[in-house]
């Protein structure tokens, strides 16, 4: 890697490399799914650049392919990405010395992985004078993910456009969502959220504007929070499972 690059930037790129094993197939599916849903290659790539969000991007593609109302598509993307608000609030103190324009750029490339890696780095950094270096590590992670995601999406678009019409690739999106869901169901509250959301979304499948999907997501969140507050699946009465959560979990 070019030694002229800031060390923190190089560290960010290096720490991101193992994650690309999961990012590349996901990006390929996003490109294929866009073509399969009837979007043009330009529309698919444009959506990827504007939205830049794995799960919500696939959800938007799926809804657009089923001619869902635009308001439903937007609301679905917003609901899925609400966690980014919490991420932003959590990591914002480490970027307080940056200009508003730079912070806006950092917000655009915020992902689960960029947040987790950067937060782990910053909380373990004992150098209080490192504020001016911090953006380099974050950008090393975030920009690497952005470039690989967009490149993977383009390759997926090219591949999807070359696939004969009689090859049905619609199964790819549900499989990806299933692969994301299973590891996320790690305790009783998350299981409650997943089950309730699935039931509500299935029952509401016939609602206008695909509103069942949004209803399922919202009710699932409420169910998960409720289960967590009443202590479902917890041992003892200390209200916690002990230990800190793994900062490397999650995907945008």
TrEMBL record:
<feature type="transmembrane region" description="Helical">
    <location>
        <begin position="192"/>
        <end position="225"/>
    </location>
</feature>
<dbReference type="Pfam" id="PF03591">
    <property type="entry name" value="AzlC"/>
</dbReference>
<comment type="similarity">
    <text>Belongs to the AzlC family.</text>
</comment>
<keyword id="KW-0472">Membrane</keyword>
<keyword id="KW-0812">Transmembrane</keyword>
<feature type="region of interest" description="Disordered">
    <location>
        <begin position="233"/>
        <end position="252"/>
    </location>
</feature>
<protein>
    <submittedName>
        <fullName>AzlC family ABC transporter permease</fullName>
    </submittedName>
</protein>
<feature type="transmembrane region" description="Helical">
    <location>
        <begin position="167"/>
        <end position="185"/>
    </location>
</feature>
<feature type="transmembrane region" description="Helical">
    <location>
        <begin position="70"/>
        <end position="95"/>
    </location>
</feature>
<keyword id="KW-0813">Transport</keyword>
<feature type="transmembrane region" description="Helical">
    <location>
        <begin position="136"/>
        <end position="161"/>
    </location>
</feature>
<feature type="transmembrane region" description="Helical">
    <location>
        <begin position="20"/>
        <end position="39"/>
    </location>
</feature>
<keyword id="KW-1003">Cell membrane</keyword>
<keyword id="KW-1133">Transmembrane helix</keyword>
<dbReference type="GO" id="GO:0005886">
    <property type="term" value="C:plasma membrane"/>
</dbReference>
<dbReference type="InterPro" id="IPR011606">
    <property type="entry name" value="Brnchd-chn_aa_trnsp_permease"/>
</dbReference>
